[in-house]
Amino acid sequence: MKAMWSACLASILVGAVASTGWAQESKSAALAKQLAAALDAAKISTLAVRDRGSPTAYVGVFYLSGSQLLVVGGNYSAPELLDARISRREFRDAYIDLNSASEPTSRLLI
After folding, report:
1. What total number of domains does the chain contain?
2. Which pTM was predicted?
3. Structure confidence by residue, pLDDT tens digits, 19-60
4. Distances (CA, A) of 73 to 25, 43, 56, 104
5. Domain that holds residue 89
């Protein structure tokens, strides 16, 4: 299950970065809908996972059901702290940490 979340969140980030123009068809829209449906089904509004591509990179999501899906990704300088939050299922706190304390040059908010 964790691998699915990680892959889905990472795909959304990659798809959003790959889009260079407003007129292009979204490459991540279907994945975003799939993630929103999975979050609705699980009855959760936040999620955070480590990005498989780097030992210090993470992806977090904040979802307002039927309204907004906010995704943040970036490197975090104290991965053991974020790992602890994730293992305790403190996804909201992990999302907030990523959004505010991740390395600014690596942060991407969608």
Report:
1. 1
2. 0.74
3. 445 556 678 888 889 999 999 999 999 999 999 888 889 999
4. 22, 22, 11, 10
5. 2-18+27-109
